[in-house]
Amino acid sequence: LAVGVRSNTGFLVGSGIETNHGIKVDNHLKTTAPDVYAAGDCCEGIDLSTGKPDMLAIQPVAVEHGRLAALNMAGKVTPHEGSLNMNVLDTMGLISSSFGLWQGAPLGKTARLIDEENFKYLKLEFEGDKLVGAQCVGMTDHVGMLRGLIQTGFHLGEWRDTLLETPERLREAYLAVAQSRPNYGPAAPHTNTPIAKAG
Q: What are the C-alpha distances in Å from 120 to residues 21, 45, 142?
């Protein structure tokens, strides 16, 4: 059972800094107190997938928040567009990861690839022709591609339907869409790219 992270914000009572589950910040990571900024696990930043404030207590978000808060404090106005909710977990050598709306979007579509023999699992969540969420187990080579497609919000076009039928073609879709490589079209011969082994 996991209950998540709760920020220790009790010491801020009466300070003029508003809190909810974490410290409230605007899209420049500025708090409700003059000239005070917050970043990382203590604050409610914007979730890229929902557009709403949320606690995203993971290291990549803390790094991103820290960089943006520093730029804004130094006078270089830099808005925070939102951070991707994600997690990567190592359970006795079996790597699992999740990104974005991994439980799915309303009226969205889902593709699954299950390889019980090799302890591999991939679930892709689509909204329209965009990949908005994913979960995978035992497939570490897919992490960067999943994060890239979800975070950038690329339109997959015909690749969406291809991935619904054959999610193992994720690498081809990524190369075609994110890196604009025309030889990787949905109608191109399937190269039977093997599912990458974890580790």
A: 35, 32, 12
